[in-house]
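User: Run a structure prediction on this.
Assistant: Running it now.
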Amino acid sequence: MNVDDIVLMSDFVRFLPHDKVILEILETVKATPALVARVAELKGFGFTFGLDDVVEESDDVRKLVDLVDIIKVDVQAVAAADLPKLVAALGGRNKKLLAEKVETVEEFEMCMALGFEYFQGYYFARPAILSGKKIAPSELVILRLLDLINSDADNGEIERAVKRDALISLNL
């Protein structure tokens, strides 16, 4: 599941089944001290993390690399000549490397030779559109209420959240 800094810093993320999801930190996320601390906290709760769309060993990547389990390298955005250097810099940290956007047999063979363990791309399968259940507005309100209760919000704040949804107010 792709996550940005807003999702990571929210308490909603704690409602996800930590043993069934991998939280992929988007490349746009800045590794601030607060965010790094939050990732470490969630890691302590058993969450698995990945870094998405890595194309270089940037400052943000360096700050997060020790907390993640999987590093997804965008092989289309990295020059073939630079890929071995990037893999050497990232792969020596006992992390799983995933080559994403693999489109040809040559790219696959090169990534295999470099030590990638996981692969994604058109070479393997075209994307499929999945259908799923949308979360009803009342379910979102319940999640918000659970978040407020979990964060020890005051009664007034919980009351205002309940009053925003007429159906929940009626049921209560």
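Strands lie at 2-3, 22-25, 48-54, 70-74, 96-100, 118-119.
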